[in-house]
Amino acid sequence: MKKLFFAGLAIALLMPAVAMAQSAFDGTWKTDLNTMHSTRKPIVITLKDGMYHCTCSVPPLAVKADGADHAVSGHPGFDTVAIKVVDDHTIQGTEKKDGKVVGNYTLTAATDGKTATEEFTNSSGATPVTGKVVIARVTKGAAGSNAMTGSWRLKNFDNMSDNGRTFTYKVDGDSVNMSDPTGESYSAKMGGGDAPYKGDPGTTSVSVKKLGKDSLQETYRRDGKVMSISTMTVAADGKTMKTVSHNEQTGGTMTSVADKQ
């Protein structure tokens, strides 16, 4: 799930002289939603001639806004999208994979049109992740168009279920192990090649390398192509972990801080 809004987080291996000591990255962490900030270019939504266009994914979506399922390609997590225009301020979307619903979202523009919310459920993993995102308007749509048209950027995450922002890492010798409640996981060798990544159709492998005593970098790939790169650093007191994730597809960067549980 974490790939819908921010790339995966990782662990670090201590220097060989203290290899037997517990890594600063070991344990369970929970992302603080108030620390999440994105530099991604604004997302553009258009409703025209019965068609819905959105740059919210790569490749962008372009389907009829008639509430029916329409086939899309290039998206490993879903193969059909249904867009329903509820009213002049609200749009609903449903994503499916092989006929199974993997995502639902409702976009609602505020009365003043300056902000909007996205309430979502992601059912692609072992347990559904729910949440609410607030977005801020950058530019307006055409006169008389639905209030959700125009361009938007992330303002803040209002809420997200714990399973969508909790993850666990363990360093065992030169092995790095990650898992989360949605079913995403991997086991990779520090400084080694790509290792299989499980539980996320958008990621097939990951490689991990140490950047410093308490700093690490993960490179996520899909079928050999780099999707995102994350750099993680644990604070000196060991209580927080800062992550800077760059998405190679959108060119955006997400920063966040997780608290050790």
Report on this structure.
The chain has one helix spanning 2-5, and strands spanning 27-38, 43-48, 51-54, 61-64, 70-71, 80-87, 90-97, 100-109, 115-122, 129-140, 150-160, 166-172, 175-179, 185-189, 195-198, 205-212, 215-222, 225-234, 240-247, 253-260. It is mainly β and 261 residues long. It has two domains: 2-38 and 163-260, Beta Barrel (Lipocalin), CATH 2.40.128.20; 43-161, Lipocalin. The strands form two sheets. It has a ten-stranded antiparallel β-barrel with strand order 1-12-13-14-15-16-17-18-19-20. A ten-stranded antiparallel sheet has the order 4-3-2-11-10-9-8-7-6-5, with no helix packed on it. It is globular and about 60 Å long. Residues 1-20 have low confidence and may be disordered.
Summarize the structure.
This protein has 261 residues and is mainly beta.
Which terms would index this structure?
Lipocalin, mainly beta, about 55% strand, 2 domains, about 0% helix, 10-stranded antiparallel beta sheet, about 260 residues, disordered N terminus
